[in-house]
Amino acid sequence: MAKFKDSSATDAAHVVPEQGTDVADRSIGSIIAETRNLTADQVEKVLAHQKAKGIRFGEAAIALGYASTDDVLFALSQQFHYPYAAEDRRKANPELVALNQPFGVQAESFRAIRSQIMMRLFNEGQERRAIAVVSPDSGDGKTFFAANLAVTLAQLGGRTLLVDADLRGPRQHAVFGIDNSAGLSGILSGRAEAKVIQQVVGVPSLFVLPVGITPPNPLELVERPAFGLLVRELLAKFDHVVVDTPAAQYGSDSAVIAARCGAALVVARQGKSQVVSLQDLVANLAETPAKLAGVIVNEF
Fold this sequence. Notes:
Blueprint: H1 28-35, H2 40-53, H3 57-63, H4 69-79, H5 87-92, H6 97-100, H7 105-121, E1 130-134, H8 142-154, E2 160-164, H9 172-176, H10 184-188, E3 198-199, E4 206-209, H11 218-223, H12 225-237, E5 240-244, H13 253-261, E6 262-269, H14 275-286, E7 291-298
Parallel strand pairs: 1-5, 1-6, 2-4, 2-5, 6-7
Antiparallel strand pairs: 3-4
Helix pairs in contact: 1-4, 2-3, 7-8
GO molecular function, one term: ATP binding
Protein name: CobQ/CobB/MinD/ParA nucleotide binding domain-containing protein
GO cellular component, one term: plasma membrane
């Protein structure tokens, strides 16, 4: 099996801030002032308004028009080491709701699901598993769900890898805006690939392994022993591994991938997924070694 390398020069869990200053040691005010390029005079006005009204710096800055609510949320995320996408990236990647709107309803739903998964799959003493995200049909929101689940797992601080194993219709590279010239297909076909795992900008603990070139034999590639060996190697390098898969309507790829991963999470779309298709998928997964972590009904 071809070896892979990730593109991060350092361990993301041990990045040392420049100038020896931890972001958590800085005040919200200093972060907002730096983000908005506030002048000394503007900062003084904010401080005066803060004192006069008995409010927080961020509230005072908003009241004076020097900052927005988004600026305050960004400052909070920086202070508490909570990844929060910059405005330009939010526009480029609207599907990443857990990163773009980490304090919104959708992000909270993903965090609730994350908590359930952590309790079911990552108890002390349990065998480590990757999580295959599967769905009955195309358009159920599987890729959207896998991407945001990976973001929420990364927000816990552990190294998290999202593997795009949808060798039939890969999309994670587009969701995260990363290069897709090389990736999983090259590894499984035995070609030496360097720097195929890419770190997500703005989220130090999140990495993505794209598909690369879409192969003509997707099922055969994931059925090879090399895929199982790769999953085990990735589990040794990352705290969490989430795997996107092709929809079950295209073949048995998703069941094969789930078996190699050890755990599966089924995603269905409310008002779209057929009950029969969903039942068939769950029945097929039951015949594999994969542990069914749950069935999610996607309302978004």
